[in-house]
Amino acid sequence: MPTEIGVIEGFFGRPWTWAERTETLRFLGGRGYGFWLYAPKADPYLRRRWREPYPEAELAELRAFAACCRDADVRFGVGLTPFELHFGFDQMAKAALSAKLAALDDAGVQDLAILFDDMKGDVPDLAARQAEIVHWVGPRTKASRLIMCPSYYSDDPVLDRVFGARPAGYLDDLGRTLDAAVHVMWTGEEVCSREQSVGHLERVGQALRRRPFLWDNYPVNDGPRMSQHLHLRAFTGRPAAIAGHIAAHAVNPASQPVLSRIPMLTLVEAYARGEGYQYLAAFRRAASEVLGEALAARVEADLLSLEDAGLARLGERQATLAARYAAFDHPAAREIVDWLEGGYAITGEALQTQ
User: Fold this and answer.
1) Is the dihedral of CA 242, 6, 222, 339 positive or negative?
2) What are residue 79's DSSP bridge partners?
3) Under CATH, what is the fold of the domain 5-277?
4) pTM of the prediction?
5) Measured between alpha carbons, how far is 336 from 263 in angstroms, rounded to an integer?
6) Segments making up each domain of the chain, as ranges
7) What pLDDT, in 10s, does the model give residues 93-138?
8) Before 219, cis peptide (omega within 30)?
9) CA dihedral sign of residues 101, 104, 109, 114
10) E strand or H helix at 146
């Protein structure tokens, strides 16, 4: 097993309710998940409006969730995205950041992630600028673990197309400049990596001068394309052998909180069984535990439609499936019906505004 498996709640689109979040925490906390990083893209006070203070009602929800984490013996963390702070880290920005850190301390953070993803990064001294911010934060937070996500958190060239060409030597500069105690997130060879290999993680670890803190973008299904599909199948391409090459394994869940639990359970089994892991058997065990036998069998029979075909290709089957799952009195079945009716669809505009 790796040091820890946990949740990075870092997807775009419709956020989970606090009740859904808490129920999922309690479910996963007793099944091998040891930390929770709260970082939904829909929380504006952690992202585009990060300089504004949290409304007291929202801060109270964070405090209550932190207490639930403590009760479940799960580390509570927050991911803060200070939009384009590396372009102007002046006194006003420092004052706003200091106030936000104090609010998060008040909420009870144990882990603090400073996230530089989803923003422009094509400046030559990007690594130095971001390291300066992270080092400034270090002594000003009560969090006992400090994590950062680079602007270029994968080898995937899509990041260069969207956010500008990454500076030459960015990863090496970041590894050399950052304090060794700071963890660095990485999603793999792609933003949504099909596999995580020992060879790749070793190479990234050498550049960063530390084992990467793996941000795994499965079963996340946000964005205009992925929101058309439910990600239900068991984890594959994450061999237990990677455990010694990562600092932790954080899973970004799907928009559907109950359905997410199916693949998320299988990751724990993949590490526990090692070379004996069988993904279909793992899916069946997890689906039965989450859904019950009857609904699990129904979902397995419909995987080609729900996961592979996606909404755009269902045609007349969409109404048939909706009626089929409406007959089940189960929250996961209601999530499937909601998805079939477009309740989880995400537009390109959401990616630009959240």
Assistant:
1) positive
2) 113
3) TIM Barrel (3.20.20)
4) 0.96
5) 15
6) 5-277, 284-352
7) 999 999 999 999 999 999 999 999 988 989 989 999 999 999 999 9
8) yes
9) negative
10) strand 145-149
